[in-house]
Amino acid sequence: MVKLMGYYQLPGSMPVQVSFEDLPEENMDAHVVKNTRFSSWKEMLDVATDTYVRKVK
Predict the structure, then answer these.
(1) Where are the domains of the chain?
(2) pTM, whole model, 2 decimals?
């Protein structure tokens, strides 16, 4: 699979846009653990949401 400007393309097929919500959470967790200080996608999202809410108030 080749990623092209936010689209995914299988060899020999037309690119299709993949919905963010359709990505497997296990893949998101693995990426977050490997590339951040967080232990899961949910933990990172919770911290980001809390930070945003505190700044908006």
Answers:
(1) 20-57
(2) 0.61
